Amino acid sequence: MDGSIRPLVEGKTDVEIKDTELTKAQVQELSKLIKEKADMASLILRNDQLGDGDIADIGDAIGQSPSDDIKMLNLNVNKIGPDGVSHVVNIIRQKPDLKLLLMHGNPLRDEGINVLVNGLVNLLPPEKIQSYKIRQINSTAKVMAKNVIDEAMRSESLQSLVSRGSAASQHSESHDSDAASTISEPVSEGKGGGGFRLTELDIGDCDITDTGADHVAKLIAMNTTIQVLNLSVNSKISVDGWKTIGEALKSNKTIKTLSLDYNKLGDEGAKVIADNLKRNKSLECLDLEGNDIGDKGGQALLSMVRFNTRLKDITLMPGNNSMSTKIQDDIKMAMALNHN
User: Fold this and answer.
1) Residue-level pLDDT at 261
2) How many CB atoms lie within 10 A of CB 294?
3) How far apart are the C-alpha atoms of 236 and 208, rounded to whole Å?
4) Per residue in 278-292, pLDDT tens?
5) pTM for the complete prediction?
6) Does residue 174 register a pLDDT over 50?
7) How far apart are the first and last CA of the chain?
8) Quick one: average pLDDT of 306-319?
9) For 333, what's the count of Cα atoms within 13 Å in the CB-facing half-sphere?
């Protein structure tokens, strides 16, 4: 694209510039126009070859813009890396009414996901951060207690005692559980802020591995305002990474739509997701297209759908899933029952 971009910005509440390579001069011109614009509702800069320096300029401009009703920022398919993510977080901090943040296809990598998640977490009210940390302590305490009990049970003398005093053992276990559930020591992580109102986050195809999955799981576990989460095409995440995300999804109460398409989950990954989503209370739509899921994974998904009647839609085809027609039909029938 050559020349001025002014005609694409002036007089428009929804600014859209896509599929072009913006020059440095055009980025500077865009930044100047944004600073002066008071009625911008959305900004779409998709596939414009924007890098970290570009988003720094544009982010500063958005922060200074008198437009306070920006609802969507689409930065899909650019070249924004970890250094640029901090500027995106600043945009959310300065424009907390932003609803949709789309960063699909940017090389954020694990480091960038860490910056994004920690940035969002530190925008949350202190009480939500505190609640999350307490839950983490409780969970760790329960795991430690279970490990101690398991180790002790390997002792023959203790096994003999337990066999003669199972009632006492049950009482002790109940007491340990109660103690873990009442841990409330203060834990700080950042000062917290006034929150954010994101309802949709797209971080698909962002080159995330298991380390990044840990960060994503943290965000999921915080039960933020995010209702639509796209994690598609992050196929470097292993089954272990999906286990971590699955554990967070088990207790999540806010996400309604989750996209995991083209992640090479296979049967094992599908089972991990299905087992954890059985107890999820919020999810309604799940996209698993293109994950090489066969009959074993399909059976796990069928069991999940029958158990969790809140789920209303699962996308399995088209794509390279290879489960039998019968299992697909059984899943569809269970979905239909969930709609009733």
Assistant:
1) 97
2) 15
3) 6
4) 999 999 999 999 999
5) 0.83
6) no
7) 52
8) 92
9) 7
Distance of CA 126 to CAs 88, 224, 232, 270, 273, Å?
A: 21, 13, 31, 35, 30
Whether the predicted pLDDT of 307 surpasses 90? yes
Three-class SS of 252-311: CCCCCEEECCCCCCHHHHHHHHHHHHCCCCCCCEEECCCCCCCHHHHHHHHHHHHHCCCC
Name residue 48's amino acid. Answer: D
Tokens for 28, please give them: 């500077």
User: What's the mean pLDDT in 254-276?
Assistant: 97
Rounded Cα–Cα distance for residues 289 and 263 (Å): 9
Q: How far apart are CA 229 and CA 101, in angstroms?
A: 10
CB of 107 closer than 8 Å to CB of 113: no
The stretch 175-180 carries a mean pLDDT of: 38
149 burial (CB, 10 Å; 0-12 / 13-18 / 19+) is middle
Which tokens is 228 given? 């639509």
Report residue 319 as tokens: 């794509």
Which pLDDT score, from 0 to 100, does residue 147 have? Answer: 65
Average pLDDT, the chain: 87
pLDDT value at residue 10: 94
Q: What is the CA radius of gyration of the chain?
A: 24
Give dist(CA 212, CA 216) in Å, integer: 6
Residue 229 three-state SS: strand
**Tokens representing 215?**
């960060």
Question: What is the b/e burial string over 234-268, where b = at least 16 CB atoms within 10 angstroms of the residue's CB?
Answer: bbbbebebbbbbbebbbbbebbebbbbbbbbbbbe
| Cα–Cα dist 174/113, whole Å | 39
Distance CA 8, CA 292 (A): 42
Q: Is residue 70 helix, strand or coil? A: coil
Per-residue pLDDT tens for 46-67? 999 999 999 999 999 999 999 9
